[in-house]
Amino acid sequence: AIPRTTSATLEIAFDADIREVWEVYTQPDRQTEWRSGVAAVSMGADGRSWSETLERGGLVIHFKIIEREAPYRLVLETGADNTFTGRYVAEFREADGRTIGVFTEEATSLTLFAKVFRFLFVNQSRFIRQYADEAKAEISRRRTAG
Questions:
Q1: Residues 63-120: pLDDT tens digits?
Q2: Which class is domain 5-34+65-145?
């Protein structure tokens, strides 16, 4: 049977100060500048929520900050209308001049179609790793630009 809820946790090291990593991970309004596949970001009036429109398929994913302990912990509620609900947790710690991030993504499919689609086409570990790789590149870009 295909599970309705799936999750993945990865630990990733960044050759950067914890505040540099935190800044990139907590500025959703700038993600169209550096994240592949994100066509648009629409910020909510509360400053704690936003929506991302993906280039492929135009899927709109909603995010809301439910816990924020700078620069160590960020917890987001996630979801897409009639597709899935989820939770994303990013925890950061300093270690030997680097930053270690532990990322957990959990998603529950809301329909049979969404469950099958996620099972066949969504690799949560790959998403976490790609996001981190693009974040690392953005940190480097900001260092050279600043």
A1: 999 999 999 999 999 999 999 999 999 999 999 999 999 999 999 999 999 999 899 9
A2: alpha beta
Contact criterion met (CB below 8 Å) for 22 and 142: no
**Residue spans of alpha helices (H) in 4-123:** 18-25, 112-121
pTM metric for this prediction: 0.95
CA 104 to CA 10: how far, in whole Å?
7
Sorted by where each begins, the domain ranges of the chain are 5-34+65-145
Provide, for the chain, the percentages of residues in helix, strand and coil under a 3-state DSSP scheme, each rounded to the nearest 5.
Answer: 30, 45, 25
